[in-house]
Amino acid sequence: MADNLYALILAGGSGERFWPYSRRVRPKQLLKLFSDHTMLEETIARLGTAVPPERVFVLTNREQEAAVRAACPGLPAENIVAEPAKRDTAPAVALGVGLILRRDPHAVMAVLPADHLIKDTATFRRDLLAGARAAADSGALLTIGIKPTWACPGFGYIEQGNRVSDGEPAIYEVKRFREKPDAALAESFLKQGNFRWNAGMFIWSIPAIMGELTKHAPELAAFVSRMRVADDLTALLASDFPLLPKISVDYAIMEKAARVLELESGFDWDDVGSWVAVAKYLPVHEGDNAANCPLTTHDASHNIVFSGGKKHVALAGVQDLIVIDTGDALLVCHRSEAENIKKLIPQIPAELQ
Fold first, then answer.
1. Which mean pLDDT values do the consecutive 10-residue runs of the chain (353 residues) have?
2. CA nearest 128: which of 235, 39, 46?
3. pTM
4. Domains of the chain by start residue, with CATH
């Protein structure tokens, strides 16, 4: 099984919630938030021997291509592909299917975001390989679900049906996908106990995904077929990819597929969607202040401080602030405004965006 398992890593996000540390050319997946390696580098390293570098593809965009290539020196140059236009996840997946189909029409393919935090790499690899076996044996599309730790209204949910596996990890039939709920509905999902977060991680065989594309997204299937026989792939992408419909893989395929399975992850997971999420992994100082740099405080509490240059920061008489220093820019905002940082971007000088 491991001999024909490929990985498609989606690395084209904007990461605007992490300004000023993130910029247009340096989104979240290219930040060193938790170690001396970018999140993209950590995503590739997490695959280990389960998927060797020659079978790892990274999709990005032209604005970030140079930085992505610099972060992935161990991958073959042709395995890093810049989308010529911004579409959505379904066209990106179709592009990945086409790249892998040209190599191995019987391959199994995992689709993984580049900017999630997973520390338990051993269990991640176990689950990845188990999911690949299940996808190959069943002919189903498989999604990885995360057991909710709280009633989060910001995630999509997967409703589990009957369990279809005997051992671990547990694999279930998917009853249906549920869109991001309001707070009350999210609470009811949590109480029912058979709902899992949709983490945007998928595994399927190439024949299975091609069958579903042909049935439910024929325009994308036709694009993949043209990719398969193209002599000049770069020219084909430039001419055809920008014309593909903007649609998510959930809407285009997952919610319509004949059979979808959900593997319940045994590993830790965090999509790290804001500075408040990052704070959970930073050293905690007196007053419950989280910081990645030297910190002095007086009557200050529950603040988040991140300095790109590890500058010494002093806080007095302030609570619940986010303070981000990058040398050329400084952000100060209330913790409750973390989700609104992206609204600042259009008003900021272009060279700092």
1. 88 88 93 94 97 97 94 96 95 98 97 97 97 97 96 94 94 95 94 96 98 98 97 96 96 96 97 94 96 97 94 97 96 95 94 93
2. 46
3. 0.94
4. 2-264 (3.90.550.10), 275-352 (no CATH)
